[in-house]
Amino acid sequence: MHLVRAALSFTCIAVALACGASKTSGGTTPDASSDAPRAEGGGGEAGACRADVVHRPAATACPSNADAGVIDAGPSTCGQTIVPHDACLTDADCAGAHGATGVCVCQSPGGEGCGVPAVTGNVCVSANCHVDSDCTPCARCRIEQSCGATTGYYCESPADTCSSNADCGSGFCTFQGDHFACQNDVACAG
Question: Is the separation of the CB atoms in 36 and 139 below 8 Å?
Fold first, then answer.
């Protein structure tokens, strides 16, 4: 099975590294029968692995949006014409600017409203893991989401102080170099 296609609120490319790709608390809807990112129940305090995080059990290819056709300018796109384009179909396509560990995030092209960049297709995001088995000791390759977009995948740590954006009020649960913590100084477009 392939990752569930994510219709993200927008691609925060210009702010991706600071602002942060699949929603559960942000665009991919986990499906218990697929290899899509999943959330598991049961939280935890810092110092222990958290079971309530969205993570990536397996990496699979994204579908291509090449045949989606041009999305004409209209009210849903704020007058933007969207030409579908995929930056990647698999994680292997994400080497280079995103490092050897870049992850391909599946998403469908579409407009999301005025002031929000259109989604053109699958994108590469930074990562320090591809799948759960790449991570120790917690064995979870966690999703990072900011501004409605998946911005990376990073190994869970016992030092994590948040499980999702819901733990951070108006901020985001972002990877801080070696653990996830709330970041409240991210400004999102729109």
Answer: no
Length of the chain: 190
The closest of 22, 47, 41 to 158, measured between CA atoms, is 47
Pairing outcome for strands 141-146 and 149-155:
antiparallel
What is the secondary structure of 67-92 as a DSSP string? Answer: TS--B--SGGGTT--B----S-SSGG
Backbone angles phi, psi at 12, to 5 degrees: -90, 50
At residue 118, φ and ψ (nearest 5 deg) are -70, 150
Sign for the pseudo-dihedral over CA of 25, 170, 53, 124: positive
**How far is the C-alpha of 29 from the C-alpha of 108, rounded, in Å?**
13
> In whole angstroms, how far apart are CA 118 and each of 10, 20, 47?
6, 16, 39
Q: Is 177 helix (H, G, I), strand (E, B) or coil?
A: coil
H helix intervals, the chain = 16-19
One digit per residue, pLDDT tens: the chain, 190 residues? 222 223 233 233 322 333 333 333 333 333 333 344 544 443 445 578 988 899 999 999 999 998 888 887 777 677 778 888 899 999 999 987 555 678 999 998 876 666 667 788 999 999 999 999 999 999 999 999 988 889 999 999 999 999 999 999 989 999 999 999 999 987 776 5
Compute the Cα dihedral for 11, 15, 16, 20 and give only its sign: negative
